[in-house]
Design goal:
- The structure is a single chain.
- Helices cover about 50% and strands about 10% of the residues.
- It is mostly helical and about 60 residues long.
- The protein has one domain (about 10-60): Arc Repressor Mutant, subunit A (Orthogonal Bundle), CATH 1.10.10.
- It has a two-stranded antiparallel ribbon with strand order 1-2.
- α1 (about 20-25) crosses α3.
Amino acid sequence: MSKDPEDRTICFCHQVRLKTLLEAIRAGAKTFEELQAQTSCSTGCGGCEYEVRDILKEELDRG
């Protein structure tokens, strides 16, 4: 098991890790829908939507 916090799985339906979300945001994803299109996060059960939205907001606020 990795000790890197960015290896944490956020979307279990599609096995999307925090690292993948951060890379997409840093590459230009600015909306939840763009993250969904680029990573498939929250397109299964939707249970991770709030966490994904929080991650997006925090990363965009960091600028």
